[in-house]
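Please check both lines for our workbook:

___
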Amino acid sequence: MDKPVADIGIFGGSGFYKLLEAAEERAVETPYGAPSDKLVVGEFGGKRVAFLPRHGAQHQLPPHKINFRANLWAMKSLGVTRIISPCAAGSLQKHVKPGDFVVCDQYVDRTSARCDTFYDGPITTHVSAADPYCPELRKFAVEAGELSGIKIHKQGTVVVIQGPRFSTKSESKWFTAMGWEVINMTQYPEAHLARELEMCCLNISLITDYDSGLVGDVEPVSHAEVVKVFGENITKLQGMLVKLLALLPNERQVCSCSKALAGARFG
C-alpha cells in the first residue's frame, strides 16, 4: 500500500459514525472471511480513523461468533497501526464502580475454541503476550480520561469469558478472589491478534455493572442493565476519544508492539 487509508482503528458501535467527517464506507475482503461489517473511514480528532462495529451494525454477532481475525486483518489492510478497543465490561472489585473507566494492562483468557492466531504454520511463530496492551497508548488514554473528568483506573486485568452467558456466582467469586478487576467477552483474541500484526492495542473498559452482583451486593448483571448504563456513558466515552486522538502523535511512537515478531519465528 502506497499510502495508508487510516492510521488509527477503533472498534465501536455504530453511534461513533456520527463523529466522523468526510466519512466513507469500505467493504474489505480478507483471507479469513468477512469482517463484522463494512468499515467506515473518515476524519476524527484531526486523524484519519477507521471504525468497525465489533458486533456488526445491528449488533447481530454474539461475542463467540465475531470473526476477530477478519476484523484485525481488515484494519491492517487499510494501513492501521494503532487499535483503540473500547468495550462494555463488568466490575469484579468494589473500588471499580459502574460508570468508571479502566485502562487495562493485562488480560486473562477464559475463552474456548476461538480462532486466536494468524500463524497456523508452516513457520512456527510464538508471539509474546507478556505485555498485551501498548504502554504508550495507555499513558495517553489515562491523560485523556483525566482531562475529561472521568473516574479512570490507570491499570487493571480483564478476564475474558466465552459468552454469550454471564458468569455463575461461583465463577465470579473465583475471579474476584484472584484479584482481577474487569470481566468482558471480546478482549481475547482481539488484543493478541493486533499484537501478532504488530499493531499497538489499547483497551478502555467502560464499567456497566458488578458482574454476578456479589461484590456490590446488587442484583446479578442483565443484558438490559448493561445496555442502559453503557448508553448513559457513551457520550463520556466519545468525548474522551476526541481528547485522546488530539493527544496522539501523528506517527506512532517506537514501542515493543511494532517489534512483536522479532525473534518470534522459527525457520
Observations:
- Residues 8-259 form a domain with the Rossmann fold fold (CATH 3.40.50.1580).
- The radius of gyration is 18 Å.
- The chain has a mean pLDDT of 91.
